[in-house]
Specification:
GO molecular function: transmembrane transporter activity
Shape: globular
CATH class: Mainly Alpha
Keywords: Membrane, Transmembrane, Transmembrane helix, Transport
CATH superfamily: MFS general substrate transporter like domains
Organism: Aspergillus campestris (strain IBT 28561)
CATH architecture: Up-down Bundle
Membrane topology: Multi-pass membrane protein
Pfam family, one: MFS_1
Helix content: over 70%
Distance between the termini: 53 Å
Length: 510
């Protein structure tokens, strides 16, 4: 009996005694904790072959629908740009800067609903809520075909922004939920690259409609057909999304019961669980005190001033190079191909080298060079200026890298959803400002706007360098804490919904 009394406490008890801060979180653990506890100590074995089998199954079911929906997300909000050279300005009697405001109003809706939708993504079933938003925004886009004046366009663009606000943060959460840290960058780059496919598909569809209606005529205006085609296609994709994408591994109909637990076990290495429905005020406070939150936020604002301008004016920009309006619909499509290649290349090299941030900065450098070509080359050099435009389409690489880092480097479900919301609020603010840089009096060259874009991208390079330096420094601090003699790791702490700063086992991706 004396020996029993003298025996040391269990590892878990010792860890709780050493670190009561972590122990208090055990009463509000991740959704996965209950599934793990139900095994009653039974070990989960996940060998390399099983891991690869699960990854293939997850990729096959999750990635195709996420990719196509994200491509439509881009196309749906930029359909206005195609319509701008297909008669919408004349039919809605748009005057002065009303077109610029229609372009910006999408992001007012996005901005107004971004934080509420981030809370709903946490509180409601993730897959079902995302699907509902897709179906609703597709229906709203169809309604644009019935708009007859500027006021009607304002309403449609605003509510389109409201319901599209869920897609990017929702997809970031789905990526963090289903994939390991080492897989985040490549998966985010893949589904985000479908912005480029959306641009290619949209340009070809718009060009086909414009040429077809010119030759054969149509019962309704060509720009209305574009809105109806893209809107109905989005609704159909939303219904497929509802059927395919589960709320978590725990209710994935295309996984066997034992594979659901294995799918949870494979993301254990992330140290951030699969989801927690409870709002935690202390995580909000930590979010607001974290310098990286604000680095992400200000990057998103500054980087998306160019994005907001180019996205809504690329057709008009191409016509300023000396091409016709019909040609601008067709010649804009290679820009989408450039974006696809840049994102996939950045994601692959970043994953291979372990330097996502530094690799993504190459897209900004290419964009700066491209915009300098547009500004500096003479008006007679149409081809050179068009190539410059294509180079600017590499600019999303750092934005997507930071979006992937929200999946990888932000832990604590309330903190993750809040950082994602702030990042996308910055995204909205930048996209609202962007179209206003392209003033009507500067047409057709828009030189002041083009110089503004160059400056913005230069500032973004400096912010990215700061983010890399900060995460590298924090990793070194965490390594020192883990190496301390008195450091003790709490059992199952990866399921306790700890933030990245609370959890010393959490290593930031660079």
């Amino acid at each position: 009996m004396a020996d029993e009394k003298a025996a040391p406490p269990s590892t878990v008890e010792a860890e709780k005694h050493v670190d009561p801060t972590l122990e208090k979180h055990s009463h509000d653990a991740d959704e996965a904790m209950q599934a793990i506890q139900d095994l009653q100590g039974e070990a989960i074995e996940l060998d390399e072959a099983t891991n690869k089998r699960l990854l293939r199954r997850i990729d096959w079911h999750m990635m195709p629908i996420m990719c196509v929906v994200y491509g439509m997300n881009y196309l749906d909000k930029t359909t206005l740009s195609y319509a701008s050279v297909m008669g919408i300005k004349e039919d809605l009697s748009l005057k002065h800067d009303q077109y610029q405001w229609l372009a910006s109003l999408f992001y007012f809706g996005y901005l107004a609903w971004e934080y509420p939708t981030s809370r709903l993504l946490q509180m409601l079933p993730l897959g079902k809520y995302s699907a509902a938003c897709i179906i609703i925004w597709g229906s709203i886009l169809c309604c644009f075909a019935g708009v007859t004046n500027f006021s009607g366009g304002v309403a449609i663009r605003f509510f389109l922004g409201v319901f599209e606000a869920s897609v990017t943060p929702g997809f970031a959460l789905l990526t963090a939920q289903w994939y390991t840290k080492s897989e985040h960058s490549s998966r985010v780059n893949i589904w985000f690259s479908f912005n480029g496919w959306g641009q290619i598909f949209g340009g070809l569809v718009a060009y086909g409609i414009a040429v077809g209606t010119r030759i054969h005529g149509s019962a309704i205006d060509p720009w209305k057909i574009v809105f109806l085609v893209t809107g109905f296609l989005t609704v159909a994709l939303g219904l497929i999304f509802l059927w395919v994408v589960p709320d978590s591994q725990l209710n994935a109909r295309w996984l066997k019961k034992e594979d659901r637990l294995l799918a949870i076990a494979r993301v254990r290495v992330n140290q951030q669980g699969i989801g927690n429905k409870h709002y935690k005020k202390y995580q909000i406070v930590e979010t607001l005190m974290d310098p990286m939150t604000w680095a992400f936020f200000f990057f998103a604002i500054i980087a998306n001033i160019p994005n907001g301008g180019i996205t809504n004016f690329f057709n008009q920009l191409i016509t300023s190079f000396g091409y016709t309006e019909e040609q601008s619909l067709l010649y804009g499509t290679p820009g989408g191909a450039v974006e696809i290649v840049a994102l996939l290349l950045s994601g692959y090299i970043g994953q291979y080298t372990g330097q996502r941030i530094l690799c993504s900065m190459g897209g900004l450098v290419a964009s700066i060079v491209g915009m300098v070509l547009i500004v500096a080359l003479p008006l007679s050099n149409n081809v050179g200026r068009l190539i410059g435009y294509y180079m600017t389409q590499a600019s999303p690489t750092p934005f997507v890298a930071l979006l992937a880092l929200i999946s990888s480097n932000v832990a604590g479900y309330t903190k993750k959803t809040t950082v994602a919301a702030l990042y996308l609020i910055g995204y909205c603010a930048g996209n609202i400002i962007g179209p206003q840089a392209f003033r009507p009096e500067d047409a057709p060259r828009y030189v002041p706007a083009e110089i503004t874009l160059i400056v913005c991208w230069g500032v973004c390079l400096m912010i990215m360098a700061f983010i890399w330096w900060w995460y590298d420094r924090e990793n070194k601090k965490k390594a020192l804490k883990r190496a301390a003699p008195d450091y003790v790791r709490m059992e199952n702490q990866e399921w306790l919904d700890l933030t990245d700063r609370e959890n010393h086992e959490f290593v930031y991706s660079l």
